Amino acid sequence: MTVSSYFLPRSLPEALEILQRHGPDLLVMAGGTVAMPLINEGLSMPGAVMGLRRAGLDRIERTDGALRIGATATLTQLLDQDAIPVLREAARTTGSWAIRNMATVGGNLFTPPPGGDVAVALLALDASVILAGPTGERALPLADFFTGFLTNQLAPDELLVELRVPMTSDPAAWVKFGRKHANTPAVVTVAARLRWSGDKIADARIALGAVGPHPIRARQAEQRLVGTRLGPDAIAAAAAVATEDCEPFTDAIATDWYRRRMVAIFVGRVLEQLAPRAEPEGR
Amino acid sequence: MNLSGSRTLDAPREAVFAAICDPATLLAVIPGCRAIERTSETEYRGEIALRLPGIVGTYRTVVRMADADPPGYGRLEGEVVGSLGSIHGHASFRLTDADGRTTVDYDGQAVIGGPLARLDSRFIEGLAGSLIGQGLGNLNTRLQRHPPAGASGDQSPTIKETPA
Predict the structure, then answer these.
(1) Which has the closest alpha carbon to A192: A179, A180, A183, A201?
(2) In chain A, what are the domain boundaries?
(3) pLDDT-flagged residues of chain B (< 70)
(4) Which residues in chain A have their CB less than 8 angstroms from residue B120's CB?
(5) Any chain B CB within 8 A of the CB of A25?
């Protein structure tokens, strides 16, 4: 263990000041579910660590048509909110109780795939990230936040402080497929949200996890759905084209070949959950 | 570790080759680059700070242009050393004219030592590919904003600064 300094700021300004003072050699930690295993195994040797758990960034509140989720709100806290049910479902299928009690919503954005399940749901919900730096805050669509595998738009002097999720009545659905039922890394995760205009889809979001360098949008599949009534043919077409939207990889959980095939199956299943039910006969 | 890739930049290849040899440009486009110094006609020394999920650190780098045929070809050798281990490697790149734009094809191999070598190769290769992609994207943006007048960066042999 090489950590010689541990900082526990009590406010955001104090946290930003510590980051400014120590620069990129400071390890910023929220729940520690990514960092601590690396430190314990000698794969990360930071000289200084800043824990954000007391910085007052863990509130979840509804304001101005949005659900504002503090970056250090835990996944267990996310289970307690009822404003956006699909986020509760995403949190419920991530890790174990012990992990969910520690892991944070903001930290989930930095978890390498096949982790980062909650970020997939946030992507489908058009969430924004709020980044705070020495000159103030800026908002960025989550879809623009990720730049590559383990890389993102966060500047060296910035902290992720909040996720802002627009409140919507659009139907949304979520599914995570792993090798076992619970507490498992994903083979693929899929989140979808549809906006209807009459009996046709006006806008669609499909987000995929564990099949790319970071959570990604299946944009071709989204476009394929617009203007359809989400019948079996439209679902099959969108599911097929979603396999071209992803860049799956091979790891101990699954091969890239298998992951690509599961994308088609689970995009189809998520969309079936959102499809209009046929009216029973005789009504 | 093997790495290869290709990307087309919106600038003529003379400008791209000059930019690759220019310390000021390298400082601006390499992700996390805090300082760079040209120590001889063909050698650069620098410092790169990376802030990754769970892992932060500063890495000293030395890169030599082992072979060059401007503006179409170059071969780089170098090493990256930090508290988590070292990476020794070489890479060659070809710049091909594509109707006034330039296609960069690169291919490299590296050997990883120390604790870094215990990380899944998917992580190292994925991260390296991601950083190269980000660097080439930055280079493309810079070339469009500041088209070079022509010559390479011989006028600025030593640069040490911290980017804003």
Answers:
(1) A201
(2) 5-51, 60-166, 172-274
(3) 148-164
(4) 251
(5) yes
**Backbone phi, psi, residue B117, to 5°:** -65, -20
Q: What is the pLDDT of residues A113-164, one digit of tens each?
A: 999 999 999 999 999 999 999 999 999 999 999 999 999 999 999 999 999 9
With CA atoms as reference, report the closest residue to A260 among A208, A211, A201: A211
CATH of A5-51, one of 3.30.43.10, 3.90.1150.10, 3.60.110.10, 3.40.50.720: 3.30.43.10
Bridge-based pairing state of the strands A146-148 and A136-141: unpaired
Q: Which of A24, A34, A42 sits opposite B115 (nearest CB)?
A: A42
CA distances from A82 to A88, A202, A266 (A): 7, 26, 25
Whether B127 and A35 lie within 8 Å, measured CB to CB: no
Residues of A with Cβ-Cβ distance to B50 under 8 angstroms: 24
Contact B126 A44 (CB under 8 A): no
Fold exhibited by the domain A60-166: 3.30.465
ipTM of the complex: 0.82
Q: Where does A172-274 sit in CATH, by number?
A: 3.30.390.50
Q: Which one of B58, B127, B130 makes the best mutation probe of the A interface by having the most chain A beta carbons within 10 Å?
A: B130
Q: Is the dihedral of CA B6, B10, B13, B16 positive or negative?
A: negative
- CATH (one of 3.40.640.10, 3.30.530.20, 2.30.110.10, 3.40.50.720) for B2-157: 3.30.530.20
A251 interaction partners in chain B (CB closer than 8 Å): 120, 122
Contact B54 A149 (CB under 8 A): no
> At residue B18, what are phi and psi to the nearest 5 degrees?
-60, -40
Q: How far apart are CA B73 and CA A222, in angstroms?
A: 42
Q: What is the pLDDT of residue B149?
A: 56
